[in-house]
Amino acid sequence: MSNKTNRRNFLKSSSLLGAGMLLPNANTQAGPNIRKGPLLDKVRVGFIGVGMRGRGHVDLTMRRADCEVVAICDIDPKALAATQNMLSKAGKKAAAAYGEKGERDYKRMLDKEKLDAVIIATPWEWHSEQAIACMKQGIYVGSEVCGGFSLDECWELVNAHEETGTHCFFLENVCYRRDVLAVLNMVKQNQFGELLHLEGGYQHDLREVKFNDGVNPYGGGVEFGDKGFSEAKWRTQHSLHRNGDLYPTHGIGPIAMMANINRGNRFTYLTSTASKPRSLNEFIVKHPKGGPNHPNANLPWKLGDIVTSVIKCNNGETMILSHDTNAPRPYSLGFRVQGTKGIWMDVNKSLYIEGSSPKAHAWENADAALKKYEHPLWAKYANDAEGAGHGGMDWFVLNSFFNNVKANAEAEIDVYDAATWLAITPLSEASIATGSTPQAFPDFTRGRWMKKKNTFGSM
Amino acid sequence: MSNKTNRRNFLKSSSLLGAGMLLPNANTQAGPNIRKGPLLDKVRVGFIGVGMRGRGHVDLTMRRADCEVVAICDIDPKALAATQNMLSKAGKKAAAAYGEKGERDYKRMLDKEKLDAVIIATPWEWHSEQAIACMKQGIYVGSEVCGGFSLDECWELVNAHEETGTHCFFLENVCYRRDVLAVLNMVKQNQFGELLHLEGGYQHDLREVKFNDGVNPYGGGVEFGDKGFSEAKWRTQHSLHRNGDLYPTHGIGPIAMMANINRGNRFTYLTSTASKPRSLNEFIVKHPKGGPNHPNANLPWKLGDIVTSVIKCNNGETMILSHDTNAPRPYSLGFRVQGTKGIWMDVNKSLYIEGSSPKAHAWENADAALKKYEHPLWAKYANDAEGAGHGGMDWFVLNSFFNNVKANAEAEIDVYDAATWLAITPLSEASIATGSTPQAFPDFTRGRWMKKKNTFGSM
Lengths: 459, 459
Hints:
Number of strands of chain A: 15
Oligomer: homodimer
Largest interface: A-B, 50 and 50 residues
Mean pLDDT of chain A: 93
CATH superfamily of the largest domain in chain A: Dihydrodipicolinate Reductase, domain 2
CATH class of the largest domain in chain A: Alpha Beta
Number of domains of chain A: 2
CATH architecture of the largest domain in chain A: 2-Layer Sandwich
C-alpha cells in the first residue's frame, strides 16, 4: 500500500508544481509513457456510477488479479446494493459505498479512498466534471463515452490533464472490436494503400432504451425521465431537446485511430445535416401502452432521426459519421475504410483489395483477411476476453486502461482524443442550427499532433 | 408522313405564340399530358452522337416496330460507319448521315430530316446546347445524363422548354432498374412509413474507362484526351480540371423519384466534401504502359477520389450522394431508403420492415419483397427488356421515352428533373471550392412542385 500511496501523493504534489515541468517531456516524446513512476502491482479502483454499465465494468474489474474494487458511488441505493451483492457473490470484500449525500458525494470518495484509478459510468452530463475532479486529485481516470456539450468543456478536460499531469483514458470500447483492430492492422501494413475515405456511425434502434415501463431497462412502455428506468431516466431528454450527433464516439473512434487523428493528422472541419424527427413520436403513438392520448404523445422531439456528419481531415481524407438511433433498423456501426488499393465495409463483411482479392471488381468475404491480419492484442488475449461484454471489447478496453494505470503511462485513448471526439457533438449541433455550415475543429493538442506517433494498440 | 409533319409544324408554329398560351395548362394539371396532339404511329428518330452509348440506343430503337432510325450525326466517321453497318445487318435502311461539316452539323440534321424525336449521346458539354436546339425546332428530345456546368445552363433548359412547349426527356436509366422500381412501389405502398433518409451514388471504378490504349475503349493503357479512345477522349479531362460530383444522376434519380422531388417536395440545399485525389495518378504510375516517367504521371488531378454530398429536402428528408470513380472498388450505386417503418439497402439485398421482417432487429434478404412488389412496368415488359443494356434498364427508359413522344406527353423524367439533377454538379463544385459551405438549390419549377403529383412509372 505504501508504494501506491506514495505514487498518488507524488502525483498530487507534482501537480502543484504546475504544467511547465511536466509537459515538455510529456507530450512531445514518441512513446506512450509520460514519465516513469513506481509500477503498481494492484490497482485500487473506485467507480462513479454503478448502474447497468458501471456494474459491467465492476464485474470485469473484480475478476482481475491486478485490481481491487475498493469504492463505489451512486445516487441510487438500489444500484449500490446490486453492486455489493455482485461483489459478495464473487467472494470479494464489500466496497466502501458513496452517494447518499447527493450528486456530488463522489468527491468524498475521491478524498477518502486513496484510489489509484476511477471509472466513470454516469449520465453524460457528469462525465467531464467527474473526470476533471479525478485528475485534480491525481487519480488516473477512465471515462465512459458520450458526446460533449460545448467546446469549453472539451478544453477543460485538456487543461485539467495538462495542469495536473494526470491521465484520462476515454473508454471507447469499439476501438478494440476484433474486426476493427484487424482492419487497423491491415491499414498499418498498407493493405488499403493511402487512405481516402472512412465511414462509421451509431446506427442502433434505441427506442426500447429510450422508453421503458419504469421498472425494466428495455422496452415494455413509453416512459422516460422521472417515470423511466436506467438510461430512459436521463438519456431520452437529449433526444427531446437537442439536434446533433449526440453519440459520435463508437463510430468515430475506430476510424480516427486508422486515420492517425491527433497522431500525424487531425480533423479540420465538419458539416452536419439532420433529417426530420418522426420515429420517437410514432413509437409512442403506436405502442400498446402509449397511444395518441398518452402524455408523451405530443412532445416536440428535436433530434433528427438520422443525423449525417461529414468530416474533412488535414491529410485530405473524408469521413461520413451517422447517428441513427430512433428508427427501426438492424444494428450496424456502418464502418467503411477505403484507400487507393482497396476497401472494407463491415456490412456483409465486404472486402476488396486490388491484386489480392480473387476476382476483379468483386467483393470477397473479409473473414480470411481478418483472420490473417488478426491484431496482436486479440491473438494474445482472445481467450481472456471471452464472455466479456460487447463481444470482448469491454475486456480489452479495461485491460488497456489498467495496463496504462499500472505503468502510469499516457492513456492509449487520451484526453486529446476525448476532447476531439466529444467536440463532434457541439460542432454538429452548431452546424445543424446554422443550415449545415462548416464548423472548424479546435486543435486540442495545440500542434502536438504534428509530431506524435500512432502507437494505439501497443499496450 | 403528313400526319407527323403536321404535328411537327404545329409545334414549331405554336412555339411562336410564346409560352403564355401553353403554360398555364402545361404545368399545373395533375396528369402527365401537357396537351393533346395527333398520336404518332411511327416515330422518326435522329441521333446526335453514335459512339458506344449512342449505338446502344440505335440498336434498341431499330428493333422497335414503332420507330424508324432516319438520321444519325457524329463527327467521327468511324462511328457513323459502324452505325450504318448495324442498321444494314439488321436489314434496315441506311440513315441519313451528318457530322462531316463539324461539331454543329447536327443543326443541319434537325433542319432537314423532319424528325419526331432526337436522342443525344454526345460528350457532356454538348447535351444542353443540343437539347435546347431540338426544343427550339419543336422536336421531342431525349438527352443522355451527365452533370451540369452552371446553374445558368440548367435554367436555359427550363426556359427552352417553357418558351417552346416542346419536351425534353432526361434519359436516366437507373430510375427503371428492377429493384429500384420495386422499392419505389414499396415506398408508394407505405412499406417504409414516412421517408427519412435516402442514399445513392456513383461508385464505379472508371480507371479503365478514363484511360485506355487509344484503340480499345476499356483499359490497356494510360492515355486520354487526344491520345485516348471513346470516353477517355473527353471524359477524363473533367477529372483533371474539376472537383465535385461530376456524375450525380444515377444515384440521385431513383431516390429523387422516391422522395417526390419536384412532385410535392424539392431539394433545399447541399454540402459537398471531397477527399484528396490520389488514385488516378497512382494508376498511371503503376501501369505497365505508364510509369513515373510517362507524360501523364505528373498531372495535377483535381477530382477528389471520393466526393460526398449531403442534400436536405424541403419535406425534411436527408440524402447522401457519393461520387467515387477513381479508386479500385466493386461497382455499387449504394442505394438506401429509410423511413419510420423500415430500411432497404441494395448492398447485400438488405431489407428490414418492422413487423413484417421475420426477425426483430435483423436483416432479411430483399428478394421476396422485391418480387412481391414487382413494379407494374417490369411485370408487363420484363420479357421485352431481356438482353437490353444495363440489365434491361435501357429498354425501359427508351420505352417510356418513345411512349411519351408518341403521345406528345410531358416527359416522365422532365426538363425540371434534368435541371435539378444537373444542378448538383455546379452546386457541389461551389460547395467544395468554399470549404463545404451549403449551396441552395434554385427552384427550377418556379413553385409548381407544390402542386404536381408523382406519376413516375405510369407510362
